[in-house]
Amino acid sequence: MLKITDLVKRYGSGGDPVLKNLDLTIEGESVVSIIGSSGAGKSTLLRCINRLVEPTSGSIVLNGTELTKLSGSNLRAARRKIGMVFQGFNLVERLTVMENVQSGRLGYISTWAAITRRYPKQDIRRAYELMERVGIAHYANTRADQLSGGERQRVGVVRALMQDPDILLADEPTASLDPKTSEQIMGLLRDLAGELKLPVLINIHNVTEAKEYTDRIVGMRYGRIIFDDLPEKLDQDAMDRIYSGSPHADRGEDPVAAQ
Ligand SMILES: Nc1ncnc2c1ncn2[C@@H]1O[C@H](COP(=O)(O)OP(=O)(O)OP(=O)(O)O)[C@@H](O)[C@H]1O
C-alpha cells in the first residue's frame, strides 16, 4: 500500500508550493491515473515518491516503509522496489535489449557481474519470461536503437518489472507514441498490474486513455487533488474544475471552494 499524507513540495526557498498538503492512498493492484493541466504537479508527485525530488514535508509510506526519512543504502534498497517507466524510455541506445532489461537488476547483483554481463541464471530466465509476455523476446540481442517507440517502451516496462517492484510509476509513458501503440502500452500496463498484483500510478495527459485503461482517476489542479473517483464519474463538470484556473488564481485559496 502507498500512503501519502500532507505532502508538500516547494522548489527553492520562496514561492508557492507545487504540492500543497496532498493526501493520496493506493491499495492493492489498482491502476490509478493522475491527470491535470501542465504544471499541476503530476511529475513532481511521482518524483517525490521515488525521491528523485526531495519532498519539503509530509509522509510517503510504501508497504510500511517511510520513504521520506531514508538515506544511503536504505534509500537505494527502497528505490529498487519502485519501478519507473519514462516518457522517453531512458534506454541505453547502444546496448542490447537484454542488457537494458538486466539493468533493472543493478543493485541486486554485484558490480562485477553487471560489468562482465554475467547475469544470474534466474535473472535471465525472468527476463525471457517478461520479454515473452510483452512480445519482445525475439529482440533480446538487438540493440535498443533499432527498435520502434512501442518496442522500446516494452523494454522500459520489462526493465522496471525486473526490479521486482512493489509499485510501478509511469511518467507519461505513452506521450511519445502514436495512438494505436499508445493504447497497446496502456492495455499492457493494466493487464500486468492484474497479473503481477502490482499497483500502477500513471501520469497521463490523454484523458480518454485514462478513462479506458485505469481503475481510478486522480485529478490535480495546481498542487491539490480536486478529483479522486472512478473513471465513469469524470464528467464535464469535473473536467472543467480540473482544467480551469491558473497557478496564480489558485494561490493561497482552496480551488474547490473558489468555484
Ligand atoms: N526542478 C524544478 N525546479 C523548479 N521548479 C520546478 C522544477 N520542476 C518542476 N517545477 C515547477 O513545478 C510545477 C509543477 O511541475 P510538474 O512538472 O510537476 O507539473 P506536471 O503537472 O507534471 O506538468 P506537465 O504535464 O507539463 O509535465 C511547474 O510550475 C514547474 O515549473
Automatic annotation (TrEMBL):
Keyword annotations of the record: ATP-binding, Cell inner membrane, Cell membrane, Membrane, Nucleotide-binding, Translocase, Transport
Pfam family, one: ABC_tran
InterPro entries: AAA+_ATPase (IPR003593), ABC_transporter-like_ATP-bd (IPR003439), ABC_transporter-like_CS (IPR017871), ABC_transpr_PhnC (IPR012693), MetN_ABC_transporter-like (IPR050086), P-loop_NTPase (IPR027417)
Residue ranges occupied by any ABC transporter domain in the UniProt entry: 2-247
One CC-aspect GO term: membrane
Gene Ontology molecular function: any one: ATP hydrolysis activity
Protein name: Phosphonate ABC transporter ATP-binding protein
